[in-house]
Amino acid sequence: MNAVPISSESIPTSVVIAAVGGQGALLASRVLARYAILRGCEVKVSEIHGMSQRGGSVVTHVRFGHSVHSPVVELGTADAVVAFELLEAARYVPYLRSDGLLISSTQRIAPLPVLTGAVAYPEDLERTLAARPVRCLFVDAQRRAEALGQIRTANTLLLGVLASQLTKDIEPWRAAVRTSVPREHQRVNLAALDVGWALFADEFAEPSHGGKGIHT
Q1: Which member of 24, 49, 64, 120 lies 3.0 to 4.6 Å from 41 by CB, making a disulfide possible if both were Cys?
Q2: Alpha carbons 63 and 66: distance in angstroms, whole number
Q3: 142 DSSP 8-state letter
């Protein structure tokens, strides 16, 4: 049984992608939207750009299903949040429904207030997130992307994790990557998708009810 079921005819699937500027959130949202289109879904995307030059948030709402009336994901309703950085995960986890899925990179990028010494980067974020009534999958996406020879594919790798929790068929996702990524970058992005897909492919059925998160 999938942890994040594909939408029924009446209820769209809602995903929030949260990142720091420059991490590739917009590309990830395009691949996700293309995947949904290839499945014959109606798709709506809402992009929110922060101060990317200063490490600000870039957030995308993607909703897809038989019929989608609004591109905006309301608080407490998202089926999944995909965060490319731990603090972004903490900021946007409130968008998840109870027993929703949080996929987060373990990367830490200090925002401007931390860099200036005004505040400290929060400690124990992974433990705090895992204590919420949601299912958490933590990934050292940066290290795994570096192993592929291209650190910028961490976004596609995290999308591969999401893909493994939405469906058991990777081929539509591979097609979505091919139609969203320039030809010269397709091979490494497809490899990153495959790596992310394989990490948690067997971790479907049991949502976390607080106090645990799965790391890889």
Answers
A1: 64
A2: 10
A3: H
CA torsion sign for 26, 76, 108, 137 is negative
The mean pLDDT values, 10 residues at a time, for the chain of 216 residues are 51 94 89 96 85 69 94 96 96 95 93 84 92 96 94 96 94 97 96 96 52 58
User: What topology does CATH give the domain 13-117+126-203?
Assistant: Pyruvate-ferredoxin Oxidoreductase; domain 3 (3.40.920)
Q: Which residues pair with 83 in a beta bridge?
A: 18, 104
The residues that bridge with 104 in the sheet, in sequence order, are: 83, 138
Write down the pTM of the prediction.
0.88
Q: What's the rounded Cα separation, in Å, for the pair 20 and 14? A: 20
Q: DSSP per residue over 182-215, as a string?
A: -HHHHHHHHHHHHHHHHHSTT--S----SS--EE
Block residue for tokens 């942890």? 3
Q: Are 104 and 87 in contact (CB under 8 A)?
A: no
Residues in the chain: 216
